[in-house]
């Protein structure tokens, strides 16, 4: 390069060159063969860029550029009108890096196996750092395939990037100045950027391995719904974007699940952000509403707000994080009816924040504090429950907090979550139960949630027939220990921190009262909450949460598990070597596995709500799983937003009928399972190409299944699966 002049063309013969090249002149540098695989440049200094370009009008073409461990294959440094074409950038920190660069062309490059990004654009607040054109670039197997740096709030972001650019084989949608565009699962997007857009709809996408999977910049009145985002830096991020709505998205294993920056009037509801570094992160934003979201098992914060005002955080669950809900330098916000339990530091930390209102929140079993008020000022706390293992609320002293109003603390004041079951049991008038629901799915467990044929054991329950009453200050286990087989134990609403062993035939029910929720939280999260090792046990009407094992584990026969809510457990309901158990009208959501049958036969799983189960990584994320289990009946269940909806492994002679298995990544899958009947199910996958898959499974019958009204189901089976009666749109795998 030293001997060249502006405008020269440098042809490079095939071979391997070990050097770092500074390009400070207008040059065309191209491989003589045009084949990047036989003209290789490796970094002599792995901490430096291979091609560092500080001149305009440079062309680099036809090279394989490798091993810049903490630099870039090609680094365009505040330059313009350069062309980067037909290069392979591999095993660098960043493949191609545009630093404050504009009007450059990147075409036909491949960026693979780079430790940070395949292609990175780093604009600044200047209009100059924009208008780059990317065509037909392939980004694959980079940590973050495509990235735009977003620290500069006034950056232009106006680039020309079309869908010929791909990440892991899926197109990049980079939309600028457009309105009223809908991207659904048919778009098969790899990453989505909306720059200066309005009225956009982004739905049913599965997006992985980007710096921003969904990025809204200066975008308003748009909606992102039912997307799955994993292994990105940001799953979803909004910058300078107002009046947008995010519903039912799942963000796992990202650095930030969902982020909002310098934005106003955005609404997030029913989203799940688990196993990220931060679940939800709101910065410098106003009037953000977070409602009924779940943020569990995040390394730092479940929900974090900083330098933000007038926000509402209501009805969220933030368990097993560093901090559950963290406010820093925030004011005039409302935190109401949230649950923040078992976090490593504080449940709810409004430190260095003022003029906020915290009402009816639960923050139990956090390692340091339920509520941490260091440096906070003029906050109002009413009706909260904060009896953590260390303290309840910090003392109101100058070095911890100033002028906070703390009133009415105690569990007796408020129900802390909207109960899924508004009336657990009426044991006086048995005609409150439906007479004819046996063949109809029940979507709302509060309505007629036990049919007469299954509720005879309740018909004669009256106050006089109760053997033991348990109040919140009492022990359920003590009542179990003092009872005899056949006894009835009624538990009053409240919070109980216990792990229970049931080793005799009992009816254990939640007694309705002023509160509709009776919650049992694991005292030891390393143990099951209900461990049932007896026949003919009934468990009815409880909220069961907070264990790394099973919410209800049953080994025995003849039992009934009905009307329970199971949240944030490894397994919601787990049958092991159990038979003739009825599992009905439970809500088993936000667990690792919602309902799990292992080595269990002749059980009925009916009319349950099973959703958002994938808390425990790749191994545990099933709605309903049957393993080595035969002759079971699954009917009328609503199974949605799980990784695997219903999965059978080495399980035969089961009947799956009239289930709604919708918006799961994999809906119904059979592996090594024979002679099963799949009848009249509604099945629609959110991410996979097929609704029902068969692997090494024989003699199964599929009949009457559909994706919805008059729409055929999509079925995939391999040649190793034989003698199945199939239907719908079929695909025979050739593997």
Automatic annotation (TrEMBL):
Biased composition (Polar residues): 718-727
Residues of the signal peptide: none
UniProt pathway: Protein modification; protein ubiquitination
Domain spans labelled Carbohydrate-binding/sugar hydrolysis: 12-146, 232-374, 491-649
Protein name (Swiss-Prot/TrEMBL): Cell surface protein
Annotated region (Disordered), positions in chain: 382-412, 715-735
PANTHER family: F-BOX ONLY PROTEIN (PTHR22990), F-BOX ONLY PROTEIN 10 (PTHR22990:SF15)
Keyword Ribonucleoprotein found: no
Pfam family, one: Beta_helix
Keyword field: Repeat, Ubl conjugation pathway
Biased composition, class Basic and acidic residues, residue ranges: 389-411
Repeat is among the record's keywords: yes
SMART domains found in the cross-reference section: CASH (SM00722), PbH1 (SM00710)
């Amino acid at each position: 390069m030293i001997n060249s002049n502006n405008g020269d063309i440098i042809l490079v013969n095939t071979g391997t060159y070990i050097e770092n090249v500074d390009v400070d002149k207008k040059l065309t540098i191209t491989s003589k063969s045009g084949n990047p695989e036989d003209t290789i440049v490796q970094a002599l200094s792995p901490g430096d860029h291979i091609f560092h370009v500080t001149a305009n009008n440079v062309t680099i073409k036809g090279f394989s550029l490798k091993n810049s461990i903490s630099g870039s294959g090609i680094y365009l440094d505040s330059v313009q009108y350069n062309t980067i074409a037909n290069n392979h950038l591999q095993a660098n920190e960043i493949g191609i890096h545009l630093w404050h660069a504009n009007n450059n062309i990147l075409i036909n490059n491949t960026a693979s196996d780079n430790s940070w990004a395949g292609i990175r654009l780093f604009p600044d607040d200047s209009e100059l750092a924009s208008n780059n054109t990317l065509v037909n670039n392939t980004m694959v197997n980079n940590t973050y395939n495509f990235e735009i740096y977003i620290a500069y709030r006034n950056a232009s972001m106006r680039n020309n990037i079309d869908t010929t650019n791909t990440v892991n084989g899926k197109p990049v949608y980079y939309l600028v100045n457009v309105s009223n565009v809908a991207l659904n699962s048919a778009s098969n997007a790899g990453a989505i950027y909306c720059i200066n857009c309005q009225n956009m709809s982004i739905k049913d996408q599965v997006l992985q391995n980007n710096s921003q999977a969904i990025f809204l910049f200066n975008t308003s009145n748009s909606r992102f719904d039912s997307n799955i985002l994993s292994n990105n830096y940001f799953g979803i991020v909004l910058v300078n974007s107002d009046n947008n709505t995010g519903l039912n998205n799942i963000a796992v294993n990202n650095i930030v699940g969902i982020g909002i920056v310098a934005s106003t009037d955005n609404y997030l509801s029913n989203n799940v952000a688990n196993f990220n570094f931060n679940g939800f992160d709101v910065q410098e934003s106003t009037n953000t509403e977070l409602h009924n979201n779940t943020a569990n098992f995040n390394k730092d914060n479940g929900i974090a707000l900083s330098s933000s005002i007038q926000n509402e955080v209501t009805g969220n669950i933030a368990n097993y994080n560093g901090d559950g809900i963290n406010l820093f330098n925030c004011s005039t916000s409302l935190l109401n009816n949230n649950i923040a339990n078992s976090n490593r530091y504080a449940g709810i930390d409004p430190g260095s924040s003022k003029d906020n209102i915290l009402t009816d929140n639960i923050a139990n079993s956090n390692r340091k504090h339920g509520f941490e008020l260091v440096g906070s000022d003029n906050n109002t706390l009413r009706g909260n429950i904060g009896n953590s293992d260390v303290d309840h609320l910090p003392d109101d002293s100058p070095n911890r907090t100033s002028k906070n109003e703390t009133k009415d603390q105690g569990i007796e004041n408020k129900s802390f979550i909207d109960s899924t079951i508004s009336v657990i049991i009426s044991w006086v008038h048995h005609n409150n139960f439906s007479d004819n629901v046996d063949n109809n799915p029940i979507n709302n467990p509060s309505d007629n949630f036990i049919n007469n044929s299954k509720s005879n054991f309740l018909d004669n329950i009256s106050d006089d027939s109760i053997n033991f009453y348990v109040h919140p200050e009492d022990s359920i286990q003590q009542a179990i220990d003092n009872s005899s087989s056949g006894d009835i134990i009624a538990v009053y609403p409240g919070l109980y921190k216990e792990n229970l062993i049931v080793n005799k035939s009992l009816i254990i029910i939640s007694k309705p009262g002023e509160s509709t929720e009776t919650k049992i939280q694991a005292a030891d999260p390393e143990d099951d909450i209900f461990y049932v090792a007896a026949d003919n046990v009934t468990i009815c009407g409880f909220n069961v949460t907070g264990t790394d094992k099973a919410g209800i584990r049953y080994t025995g026969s003849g039992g009934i598990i009905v009307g329970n809510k199971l949240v944030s457990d490894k397994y919601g309901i787990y049958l092991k070597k159990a038979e003739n158990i009825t599992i009905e009208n439970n809500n088993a959501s936000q667990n690792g596995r919602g309902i799990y049958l292992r080595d269990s036969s002749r059980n009925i799983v009916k009319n349950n709500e099973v959703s958002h189960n994938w808390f425990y990584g790749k191994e545990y994320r099933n709605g309903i799983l049957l393993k080595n289990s035969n002759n079971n009946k699954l009917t009328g269940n609503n199974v949605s937003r799980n990784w695997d909806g219903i999965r059978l492994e080495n399980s035969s002679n089961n009947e799956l009928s009239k289930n709604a298995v919708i918006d799961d990544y994999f809906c119904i899958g059979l592996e090594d399972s024979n002679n099963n009947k799949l009848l009249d199910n509604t099945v629609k996958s959110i991410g996979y190409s097929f609704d029902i898959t068969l692997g090494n499974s024989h003699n199964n019958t599929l009949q009457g299944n559909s994706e919805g009204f008059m729409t055929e189901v999509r079925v995939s089976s391999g040649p190793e699966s034989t003698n199945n009666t199939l239907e719908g749109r079929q695909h025979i795998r050739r593997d």
